[in-house]
Amino acid sequence: MADKPHMNIVFIGHVDHGKSTLVGRMLLETGGIDPHIIEQYRKMAAEKGKATFEFAWVMDNLKEERERGVTIDVAHKELTTDKYYFTIIDAPGHRDFVKNMITGTSQADAAVLVVAAPEGIMAQTKEHIFLAKTLGVNNLIIAINKMDATKPEYSEERFNEVKAEMEKLARLVGYKPENITILPVSAYKGDNAVKDKGNLTWWKGPTLYQALDMLPMPEQPVDLPLRWPVQDVYSITGVGTVPVGRVETGKMKVGDKIIFMPSNKTGEVKSIEMHHQPMQEAKPGDNVGVNIRGISKKDIRRGDVAGPVDHPPTVAKTFTARIAVLNHPSVITEGYTPVFHCHTAQVACTFVEIQQKLDPKTGQPKTDDPNPKLLKTGDIAVVKIQPTRPMVIEKASEFPQLGRFAIRDMGQTVAAGMVIDVEKKQM
User: Fold this and answer.
1) Residues 199 and 300 grouped into a single domain
2) Reported pTM
3) 251 is in which domain, residue-wise?
C-alpha cells in the first residue's frame, strides 16, 4: 500500500442516487471485499424486501442503516487502483454532506459526485457540489448512475441531457471544465464501473476505475514553510522525546531547529524515522516519528504544530471562517461553543459573531438577511470564532491543510469550514 501515492476521495450526492452501491461495486471488483460477503448480503437484502441493496450494505454495516436503507455515519474503506491507494469516504446523502476530517488526514483530495440518470439534478446535488467547492475539493468525477434504469435502458440521449445540466451547474459554482470528468455507470449492474463498458457500448470515455487513475496527484507543498501537527508524543527510554505526526507542508531535516506552537517550545531535530526506517528528511504526506533534542514529553502535546523558528505556526486570538452547517438539531447563535477539529487539534471555540449568510447555490452574500442572528442546517455563513485556549490554525489560502476544520457537538459533525483570516495571538 505504502509504495503507491495515497489519496482521500469522498463519494457524495443526493440520497438514494446510488453512492453506497457504487462504492460497494468498486470494492468488490478491485478485490477490496470477498464475493461471498456480497452473496450473503444479497440473500439478506432479498429476505428483508430490500433487493438491490446488497452492495450498499458493504458500506452501511450498521443494523439500523440496513433496516432503513440509508447511510447514517461515515464509513472508511480502502481501494487500490493501478496508480493510487485510496481511502474512500462515503458521505451520507440525506445528512447533507459530512466530511470526516477528524483525524486531519481525511481531507478529500477529490470527490465522486453520484447523480442518478432517471432523476437528474436534485436539491442535494446542487448543495453537495457547492460544498465540495467550499471545502476545497478541486477535482471532481461526476458519475451519472442508474443507466440501467433509464427509458430506454442505457439511453445515450438521457446521459447527454444530464451531462449538459451538470456541466452548467459545475461552471456556476466555479469548477473549471478541465478539473471535471463526467461518465455514465450502472453501479448495480457493474457497467463501466471497473472492468468493462457492459451495455454502455456507445460510451468511448473511461470507466470510473480508469477515471480515478487519471486524477492528478495531490500537490506536494514542499515550498511552503514546515507545518507538522503532532498526533502523539512518546518518551522512549535511551532515545528521548519522540513526537509523531504527518508532515502537512514543507520539509524537515535532521539538524533543523523547530518550534512547537502553542506550547512555544524550541528543539533540534536529532533523528527522523518512518516505518522504523531512519531518514534524513521528511516531506509532505510522510508520517514520521522524530527525536527532538531539548524538549521533554511534558513540554508538548497532541494538537501542537511544529514549524521553523523563523516562521512559527500561527496561534489564533480569533479567526474568520466560511462554514457550512451540515447537521445541527436546532440553531447556532452567537455564544455557541462546540469543539473544532483542525489538523490534530481539538479545541472548544466560541462563535463571537455571525457576519453574513451566503446563498448555497451561488456563494454570494444573502441580501434578504443582512444581519443574521442564527444559523441552521443547510446554511453557509461567514463567522468570527474565538478559541477557548491557544490553538494553531492558518489561513486556508496560505496553508490549506491547516485552514480547514470540522465542528463537532453531541457526537456528530455539525459543520465544516475553512479559515479566511486569522487575528494572531501575541505569545
Assistant:
1) no
2) 0.66
3) 228-308
pLDDT grade for 55, boundaries at 50, 70 and 90: low
**3 state DSSP class of 86:** strand
Same domain, 328 and 264: no
d(C-alpha 248, C-alpha 399), whole Å = 9
Q: Write the DSSP assignment of 6-71 as a string of letters.
A: EEEEEEEESTTSSHHHHHHHHHHHTTSS-HHHHHHHHHHHHHTT-TT-TTHHHH--SHHHHHHTS-
Q: How far apart are CA 402 and CA 396, in angstroms?
A: 7
Place of cell 449568510: 357
333 and 234 share one domain:
no
Rounded Cα gap, residues 248 and 285, in angstroms: 6
CATH number of the domain that residue 300 is part of: 2.40.30.10
Instruction: Return mean pLDDT, the chain.
Output: 83
How many residues are given for the chain?
A: 427
Q: Is residue 219 in a domain?
A: no
Closest C-alpha among 256, 249, 244, 257 to residue 227: 249
88-138: per-residue pLDDT in tens?
765 544 333 333 333 333 356 788 999 999 999 887 787 778 777 766 778
CA 380 to chain centroid: 18
